[in-house]
Fold:
Amino acid sequence: MQRSDIARAFVHALDHEDFAAAEPLLAPDCVYTIRSETIQSATEIIASYRAAAEWARTSFDRIRYESQLTQESPSRFRVRYIDLTDHRGLTHRHECEQVFTFNNANQIDTIEHIDLPGELERLDTFLDRVGVTRSTPSASPPDAP
Structure:
């Protein structure tokens, strides 16, 4: 399987909360950085994605995920995650990016979360309006609030 196929499979798995399909695409010692936090190991990374998705599912009336994947080099991919959240009659669109790289075994070995300018502030405003509190500062669905 080519890296582009693996990258698409990973993004698709996260968009569909299929964490069992996503985990084997990560190197066992994969490193994920999100804001000031570093999560190490495929197991811990998937656990963080799963917990964030569960938080979103139980906090909002509805959440849908979309993504746009681009290949920046043979071993580097960038995904723009788009979360469409409905709660208490309001809808919010949140966007963020993640960049991931592959090792020589064709497994994802690094993931870097990138907050886009103004997105966290808009998200905080939405959360305040609908009365939802983040469980932790980095609690975010796989695609990211």
